[in-house]
Design brief:
Elements (H helix, E strand, L loop, with lengths): L1 E9 L4 H9 L4 E6 L6 E7 L2 H11 L6 E8 L3
């Protein structure tokens, strides 16, 4: 099991739609709008680091209005 947190920079007028779309992706267990430099934080719980990459690259980054991401894998 691999847990990762994806910090998402989004087009602000679309942030609610982006959060909802991210929350529906396979492996995403939580997605929240946050204040600050980042607009959405998503928690991913998948089987492997390759699955994290697939979720971010093929899922999150394909959503219209997503401007960029940073991914941090938990080390516990």
């Amino acid at each position: 099991m691999v847990i990762a947190y994806v910090l998402i920079k989004a087009n602000v007028p679309s942030v609610d739609r982006i959060r909802d779309t991210v929350a529906e992706l396979d492996g995403v267990t939580d997605a929240h709008i946050v204040a600050g430099d980042i607009d959405v934080i998503a928690k991913i719980d998948v089987d492997s680091p390759a699955d994290v990459r697939k979720t971010v690259a093929s899922g999150v980054l394909s959503i219209s209005g997503v401007e960029g991401t940073q991914t941090h894998m938990a080390m516990e």
